[in-house]
Design brief:
There is one protein chain. The chain contains 3 helices and 3 strands; from the N terminus they run αβαβαβ. With about 120 residues, the protein is of the alpha/beta class.
């Protein structure tokens, strides 16, 4: 399985004359009486969905110093109507949730205005 971002590759016309090889594999050890569903977890993604639709994004990096400075960032973002995003380093450190991570390893966004705060760029 592979996942690609939209627009990354140029679409090609399908060649309907080709045949795909189909191989059916039987799962080993799945579906037997010894498997039991213990719990179901659904993680809401409200922050990520809001971020993808945001017209103004204020992204924060490790350059803000510490998570104690996040209330300042959120206050400033609220005052200009921005949605807060984070770099991978910020989410890896646990300062903000992964749902609002942007960049190559995060969400692809296209706001009208992007403000980077404490982001090194390397």
């Amino acid at each position: 399985m592979a996942t690609l971002r939209p627009g990354l590759l140029t679409p090609v016309e399908p060649d309907w004359g080709l045949d795909a090889e189909v191989e059916t594999l039987a799962p080993h050890g799945a579906g037997g009486p010894d498997i039991e569903m213990l719990d179901t977890h659904v993680q809401e993604d409200a922050g990520g969905l809001e971020l993808e639709a945001a017209k103004i994004v204020m992204a924060v990096g490790m350059g803000i110093g510490s998570p104690e400075n996040l209330p300042i960032i959120f206050g400033l973002a609220e005052s200009i109507g921005a949605t807060v995003a984070a770099t991978r380093n910020v989410t890896d450190a646990g300062w903000l949730p992964r749902q609002i991570q942007v960049g190559l390893t995060g969400r692809a966004i296209a706001p009208e205005l992007y403000i980077a705060v404490g982001i090194r760029g390397d």
